Amino acid sequence: MKIVYWILTVVFWTSTVVLCGIMLYSAQMYFRNTAMVEGFFKSMSYPTYIVIPLAIAKVLAVIAILTNKVKWIKEWAYAGIFFDLILASAAHEYAGHSIGLSVYGIIIFVISYATGKIVRP
Q1: 0.85 surpassed by pTM
Q2: For residue 38, which of 47, 63, 95 has the smallest C-alpha distance?
Q3: Half-sphere exposure of 61 (CA within 13 A, CB side)
Q4: Within 13 Å, how many C-alpha atoms sit on residue 23's CB side?
Q5: CA–CA separation, 112 vs 19, rounded Å?
Q6: I need a labelling partner for 120 at 20 to 30 A (CA). Which of 7, 38, 56, 112 fits?
Q7: Concatenated DSSP letters for 62-118?
Q8: Is 120 helix (H, G, I), strand (E, B) or coil?
Q9: ∠ CA(73), CA(76), CA(46), 5° rounding?
């Protein structure tokens, strides 16, 4: 039984680090290339004023998930990441872009969240 728990722990941390990496990569793009990201948002009919707040929210979500200090904040962080990934995937599909990290992020999200419920209740 301990080997299963150990495997789930490795799967959890691997998927969580990858998920957080995707979110941080996205956030740094929003901070460093704000004009380019605003152009993408504008082309998909999203308001451009949410670019920087969304980047800040992504960073805060990563902190909440990795620290695991307040359980309900961690749950809201996971929810925010889930909605971000779903909406990003839909936006990229609508714009005719390639699948991108958002679709892969959904799969990684499910693995991280599901194994986290077992490893870090």
Answers
A1: yes
A2: 47
A3: 28
A4: 30
A5: 8
A6: 56
A7: HHHHHH--SHHHHHHHHHHHHHHHHHHHHHHHHHT---HHHHHHHHHHHHHHHHHHH
A8: coil
A9: 135
